[in-house]
Amino acid sequence: MRAVADLLDILDLEKLEENLFRGRSPKDRWQRVYGGQVIGQALVAATRTVPPERRPHSLHAYFLLGGDPKVPIVYEVDRIRDGRSFTTRRVVAIQHGRPIFSMSASYHVEEPGFDHQAEMPAVPMPEDLPGEGLLKAKMLQDKVLPRMPEPVRTYFQSERPIELRPVEIERYASRTPGPPRFHVWIRATSPLPDDPAIHQAVLAYASDMTLLDTSLIPHGRTVFESEIQPASLDHALWFHRPFRADEWLLYAQDSPSASGGCGVSRGLIFTRDGTLVASVAQEGMIREKRVVPEPEA
Fold it and tell me: Are residues 101 and 37 in contact, defined by beta-carbon separation less than 8 angstroms?
């Protein structure tokens, strides 16, 4: 599909100089660059300075300023350390002469060791959930789409590189508060190349989707509302085991806390056979826009 080809093109950074890369944003109507795009591009930049036998096992990132989708993003990689088993890189994303994002990533050679994992939640399989067409129809029927900000609505109704099949889809139809848990199946909408680095970058791109929204469930709200001002503040991602991002992955999310205009969300990502392949944590702004009263005549 065209959307996946466009995503792969966006993740294929231009090399400007040693340790210096340039990325672009898709031509859409977002006022800011999507956070997952910057995470994915920064991971690609770091990975291109690391030997292929070393794979990323963790990244920790901070969003400093909203990205401008109309101009390219320059990624500067600092080769912090090349050890016997681990490699560390620091990446700074720059626009208009200022850093908008910073990330540290660690790489590790494959080696044997202790092995255990959390159990996958018991949820319906993706085949038992509504597909994209039925999902859009339901959100239109429940008047969810008209309440979305215009750029979000346009993006949701267009072809996208990542397919989402939410388990708790009913939460978007009302403002009824619920437990701070959300489960969604995700996958690329068409096959990806076999290179594991591409699958890791695509999962990094997708890991910013829906996660912050989980912190609003106890309050009966969503990031899709015009009255909510959401923004990712930081993002951490750990890769545990091999996976393919073009096969169904369960993104099991929860939110342990929200306070002071910020919410913390966590996620575990499983293959359909229950293998835990990644863990995610994020804090984001979930500020309710203040309505300024009009001055009296």
Answer: no
Structure tokens at 227: 């009255």
The pLDDT of residue 140: 58
CA–CA separation, 76 vs 93, rounded Å? Answer: 6
Question: Looking at 174-291, which runs of residues are DSSP E strands?
Answer: 181-188, 228-239, 249-259, 262-271, 276-288
Q: Which two tokens stand for residue 36?
A: 């997952």
Which structure tokens are listed for 114? 């202790």
- Give the amino acid at 261: G
Which residues share a beta bridge with 76? 20, 92
pLDDT digit string, tens, across residues 215-240? 999 999 988 787 888 999 999 999 99
Q: Which helix (H) or strand (E) holds 235?
A: strand 228-239
Instruction: Kindly list the catalytic residues.
Output: 208, 232, 282
Supply the pLDDT for residue 179.
93
Residue located via tokens 């560390």: 88
Q: How many CB atoms lie within 10 A of CB 48?
A: 16
What tokens were used for 147? 């309440």
User: CB within 8 A of 184, min separation 6: which ones?
Assistant: 164, 165, 166, 167, 210, 250, 251, 253
- The mean pLDDT of the chain is 90
Q: Which residue has the tokens 């369960």?
A: 250
Q: What is the three-class DSSP state of 141?
A: helix
How far is it, in rounded angstroms, from Cα 187 to Cα 162?
Answer: 6
